[in-house]
Amino acid sequence: MTDVAEDIELKSEELQSVLDRKPSWLLRFGISIIFVIVLLLVIIANLIRYPDVLRAGAMVTSVVPPIAVKSKVNGQVFFYVHNQDSVDMGAVLGYVRNATNMDDFHYVEQLMGRLLKLSTDDLQQQLLQIPIRSDLSLGEMEPEFLSFYRAVEQYRMFVRDNSREYETSFYLKADKSQGAIGRSLEKQRELVLQSLRDAERQYHTDEELFSRKIISKDELSNSLQNLVQKQLALESLNTNNEESLKNRNSINYNLSRIVSTTNLNKRELLLGLSASMNQLEVAMTTWKQKYLLVAPIPGEVNIVELWSDGQLVKEGQEVVKVTPHNAALFAKVYVPVTGSGKLEVGQRVNIRLDNFPYEEYGMLEGKVKYIPKVASNGMYEVTVSLNKGMTTIANLIIPYKPDMTGAAEVVTKEQSVAGRIFRMFNKVIRR
Predict the structure, then answer these.
(1) At what angle do helices 142-160 and 120-129 cross, to 10 degrees?
(2) pLDDT (tens digit, 9 = 90+) per residue, 267-300?
(3) Averaged over 388-412, what is the pLDDT?
(4) 3-state SS string for 182-194
(5) Which domain holds residue 368?
(6) CA distance 188 to 206
(7) Which of 164, 178, 280, 369 has a Cα-to-Cα distance from 310 of 20 to 30 A?
(8) What is the pLDDT of residues 23-69, one digit of tens each?
(9) Segment 377-405 mean pLDDT
């Protein structure tokens, strides 16, 4: 028993020494330090926030999009322009080879452009002076050009035909002659008429004298005979005068017929010429639409996948794109339906272009401007305005090219680390 008591007393002293010894500072303040650290982590987790993003494909384009010029036929293409050339609307960019000789086409185009600007009177004069070639190779426009050429030649032959002038001159001279004859007959008629009046007075006088038996019957007969002769002379002159008038009317009728026929034939020739010019113009327009590559808008030329003359193109193939000058730029972002409920107008968008590494050039910044209500093929085509155009966050200007593609990040909202951890735990618990 004594040994046990001594042992208990001995252990009690060791325990007492342990209890009496002061704990180290780590033991005294460790819990507080851990609490403070945990508290700081919680505070930091709530303070540190970073955004949620929706990743999507993007394409930078212009408000007036680049317009593609397509080939209407199969064949070899030849260009009049080069990449990045500035062109006006309607400028000819090139052509697809066909049976038409281009030099001959340009000749006819200039000729028609010159003729169509003229008034009718000027056109009639110029058609007699302008030389028109017939040895042209115009392919599909050949029938219309030959019709135009024949119409011009017929008009020239008609104008240069002298037979109408000879015939007109003949009738004019005849009219002049008949006019002189008519005037002469009229003067003779006046003289005969005066002589007739004198003969009538003489006869009446002689008749009175005969009744008084002053003159003989023979003298009265002579007076009557003179009167009758004057009357016959007047009738003859009247007949000649009527005949001269008929001749002159016939001459005037023939002159009128020649003028009328000439004007009618000239009008028909001019109408035929005008119709042939219109047909040729239509044929040229159709040919241009088929074989020429024409700029639909003013802008910059971008040749699509073709770099040299003579390359083959197929019908419907895009050959050239014309990008409008100084058109406002924006981005189309194709957001998947999944997660698209977070989209809101005004959200920030960062765009990294495929052709320009963002580590070197930076990213384009923009804002969501429009969100369509209906998705197409599982995608929403979201319109994004560019804050600084093609200037990146690194203050570098990227040259615009049509339909530049890239990747977009739409910043939907910012959330703290603590909130994300809580959301993850909540998701696990709900499972």
Answers:
(1) 90
(2) 898 899 999 999 999 999 999 999 999 999 898 8
(3) 87
(4) HHHHHHHHHHHHH
(5) 328-430
(6) 26
(7) 280
(8) 565 555 666 777 777 777 777 766 666 667 888 999 998 887 788 89
(9) 88
Beta carbons within 8 Å of 88's beta carbon, 6+ residues apart: 295, 298
Q: Does residue 393 sit in the same domain as residue 308?
A: no
Within this chain, do residues 259 and 316 fall inside the same structural domain, yes or no?
no
pLDDT of res. 295: 92
Q: Whole-model pTM? A: 0.59
Are 269 and 345 found together in one domain?
no
Helix axes 25-47, 417-430, angle to 10 degrees: 90
- Cα angle: 397, vertex 399, 400; to 5 degrees: 120
Dist. CA 112–CA 347, nearest whole Å? 58
Q: Is residue 166 part of a domain?
A: yes
**Does 84 share its domain with 6?**
no
**CATH value at residue 74:** 2.40.50
Q: Are 193 and 275 contained in the same domain?
A: yes
Query: Does one domain contain both 369 and 426?
Result: yes
Domain boundary (264, 290, 316) is at 290
Domain count, the chain: 4
Long-range contacts of 63-68, Cβ-Cβ distance < 8 Å, separation of 24 or more: 63/327, 63/328, 63/329, 63/330, 64/297, 64/324, 64/327, 65/402, 66/299, 66/302, 66/321, 66/322, 66/323, 66/324, 66/402, 66/403, 67/296, 67/297, 67/321, 67/322, 68/304, 68/318, 68/320, 68/321
Tell me, what CATH number does 108's domain have? 1.10.287.1490
pLDDT tens for 113-149 read 888 888 888 888 888 888 888 889 999 999 999 999 9
Is 58 within a domain?
Answer: no
Identify the pLDDT of residue 202. Answer: 84
Q: Report which of 430, 425, 391, 332 is spatially closest to residue 58, judged by C-alpha positions.
A: 332
- Cα 36 versus chain centre, distance: 76
